[in-house]
């Protein structure tokens, strides 16, 4: 039997030894949340709405850091190469963690290999809108009208490789409508030219086009979400109007470096979920055209794989390239 002195020495050694990585108190210091886009973008806004409550629940400050560049690649790469300890997170998007995989095949990280997918955070549905001069009141009527136009029908987007561009290409693939892409430097410029009638159609964020729909300058023919939106309950989805699987909402997702311990992943997800569904958050998110999701990690990973595959096919078929 070990002596009392040996037992005491072992106890002291155990006390002084550093705790195992997965057993140490976490979080014990501030968490860095990298937003791979600039201040004021939708990714930045949803991050700054969710992190104060997440910080309270986790018991440590969450410091938001904007690291914009290369369509979200610069900041995302920082997280991909960070330690998987839960102290460095990334609020990614459909661009940085889905579309770019196909548009920019030389990106320095592999989304599915180099990240822990924690949660689909929010979705940002779009509206398919047309100029008030277009003689169509429904999506099928618009497609029928477009097929009769010599030279096709132009649609405006926020730029090459953006979700509004690829949504138009997916519509073209699924309907056979002769849609011709016209890229703009910004979504605001694209919407302005649709209002003026220079371009007949665009697919863009609900909050950006809804004021013009309400005052009659644009006609909303469809939402691009899987279900009707509370903000525009009278506008049917594209799916309702016969376009199968046309769910092309932009989205935001929470990521960590690969190999994040499951316990920490789940604590982060639980804090995120409570923050997103706090009573005061609903109106704040809706003002930005965002719908809270907080998808569970085990669901988010396969969902992400499907989203990447969908846009890979759209990019391959359309030949889309980023600016």
From TrEMBL:
It comes from the Bacteria. Gene3D superfamilies: Bordetella uptake gene, domain 1, Periplasmic binding protein-like II. SUPFAM superfamilies: Periplasmic binding protein-like II. InterPro entries: BUG, Bug_dom1. Pfam families: TctC. Belongs to the UPF0065 (bug) family. This is Tripartite tricarboxylate transporter substrate binding protein.
């Amino acid at each position: 039997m070990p002596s009392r002195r040996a037992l005491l020495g072992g106890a002291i050694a155990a006390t002084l030894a550093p705790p195992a990585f997965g057993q140490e108190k976490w979080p014990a210091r501030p968490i860095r949340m990298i937003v791979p886009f600039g201040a004021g973008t939708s990714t930045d806004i949803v991050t700054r709405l969710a992190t104060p409550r997440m910080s309270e629940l986790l018991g440590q400050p969450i410091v938001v850091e904007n690291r914009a560049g290369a369509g979200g690649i610069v900041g995302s790469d920082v997280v991909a190469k960070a330690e998987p300890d839960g102290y460095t997170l990334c609020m990614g998007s459909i661009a940085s963690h889905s579309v770019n995989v196909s548009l920019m095949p030389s990106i320095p990280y592999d989304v599915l290999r180099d990240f822990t997918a924690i949660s689909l955070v929010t979705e940002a549905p779009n509206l398919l809108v047309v100029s008030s001069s277009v003689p169509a009141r429904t999506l099928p009527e618009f497609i029928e009208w477009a097929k009769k136009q010599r030279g096709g029908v132009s649609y405006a987007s926020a730029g090459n490789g953006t979700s509004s561009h690829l949504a138009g290409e997916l519509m073209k693939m699924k309907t056979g409508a002769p849609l011709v892409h016209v890229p703009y430097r910004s979504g605001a410029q694209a919407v302005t030219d649709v209002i003026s009638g220079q371009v007949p159609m665009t697919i863009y964020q609900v909050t950006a086009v809804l004021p013009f729909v309400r005052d009659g300058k644009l006609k909303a023919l469809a939402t691009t979400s899987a279900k009707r939106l509370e903000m525009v309950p009278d506008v049917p989805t594209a799916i309702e109007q016969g376009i199968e699987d046309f769910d092309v909402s932009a989205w935001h997702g929470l990521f960590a470096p690969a190999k994040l311990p499951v316990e920490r992943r789940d604590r982060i997800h639980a804090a995120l979920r409570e923050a997103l569904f706090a009573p005061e958050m609903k109106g704040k998110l809706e003002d930005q055209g965002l719908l809270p999701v907080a998808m569970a990690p085990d669901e988010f990973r396969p969902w992400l794989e499907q989203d990447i595959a969908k846009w890979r096919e759209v990019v391959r078929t359309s030949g889309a390239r980023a600016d």
